[in-house]
Amino acid sequence: MPQLSPVVPDFPGLARNIRPAEPSRAVSRVDGFARSAEVQTTLGEAFTLSGYGLHTGRAVTVRVAPADAGAGIVFRRVRRSGPACVPALWHLYEAQPLCTALRGPDGTLVRTVEHLMASLSAFGIDNATVDLDAEELPIFDGSALPWCAALAQAGRHTLALPRSRLRIRRTVEVREGDRWLSIEPAERFSVAGELALAKLGPMRWQGEITRDSFVEALAPARSFGRLKWAVPLKLYAYATGRPVLRGANLRTTAAILGDRVIGGMRGADEPVRHRILDLVGDLALIGHPVLGHVTARHTGHRLNHALVAALLRDPTAWELV
């Protein structure tokens, strides 16, 4: 079994990408996105997208560019004083309302990273630099489709460094009341998710997470919320100055009113598909592709990150292959 070296202090057994002393650049172009189990990848070319943050409501421009082998995914807040780097790694997770946020070593915050992280993971991109000129990534229409379209156009390069995958060796589970989440050994990455919403009933989705299944089944699913909770929360956020749902509206979220989604759902069981989309993005903060099966019941960002922490803090539960 390959040994992990080095590890991050105070987090024994942490799986993460380490930049090599002399990183290799792209050596060949991959036509399409057939996965390679042997070498790392990066983007074929950079792309830029702009939009507004779901919580801050602020305009933001994001440039996603190729990176060297071993770099991993790194967010860079672009400022007049210079860029501040925030690696996309689980131990930098900071609890924020209704999103996944990362706090860098110098205190820099980047929020709502989950949709881009899920898309990069599904498209098999191991290394990329993500420059943004505001705190929060754009929400677009609440889905991951804009990220997927840009990644498909950018293409993918292979790099001259082996890719490691994190294989689950034994089941790890976390619970919070009637919410629970587990990951168990499997030869591929797959998810079975369940969600029950009042007046909408139980919703389920399960399947292997591949580029095609992600684009077709998960990426179109939008962030969602009930109007009866969202409107008071938006008013509270404006009154207190907190960045919560300031950019939420009928164009950026699937708004639930009573027993229906205003304007209709994008396919059956859209809310549970979006929860699985978020889960894929949160698991991507492990820093390596995962070989395991996840079972999720009423999960959310906090529980997703609790599972990642419980898994990676137990070096007997996984191995790098």
Q: What is the helix fraction of residues, given as a range?
A: 10-25%
Rg, Å, rounded? 19 Å
Q: Estimate what percentage of residues fall within beta strands.
A: 25-35%
From the 3D structure, determine the CATH topology: lpxc deacetylase, domain 1
Describe this structure in words.
This protein is an alpha+beta fold and 321 residues long. It has one domain (36-320): lpxc deacetylase, domain 1 (2-Layer Sandwich). It contains 6 helices and 21 strands. The protein has helices at 114-122, 145-154, 211-218, 227-240, 270-283, 301-312, and strands at residues 26-30, 39-43, 47-52, 59-66, 73-77, 84-87, 93-96, 99-103, 109-111, 128-132, 156-162, 166-168, 172-176, 179-184, 189-197, 201-208, 224-226, 254-257, 260-261, 290-297, 318-320. The strands form 5 sheets. Strands 12, 13, 14, 15, 16, 20 and 21 form a 7-stranded mixed beta sheet that branches. A hairpin with a 5-residue loop joins strand 8 and strand 9. Helix 5 runs parallel beside helix 6. It is globular, with a radius of gyration of 19 Å. It starts with 25 loop residues before the first strand and ends with a strand. The relative contact order is 0.20. Mean pLDDT is 89; it is low at 1-37. Pathway: Glycolipid biosynthesis; lipid IV(A) biosynthesis; lipid IV(A) from (3R)-3-hydroxytetradecanoyl-[acyl-carrier-protein] and UDP-N-acetyl-alpha-D-glucosamine: step 2/6. The active site is at residue 301.
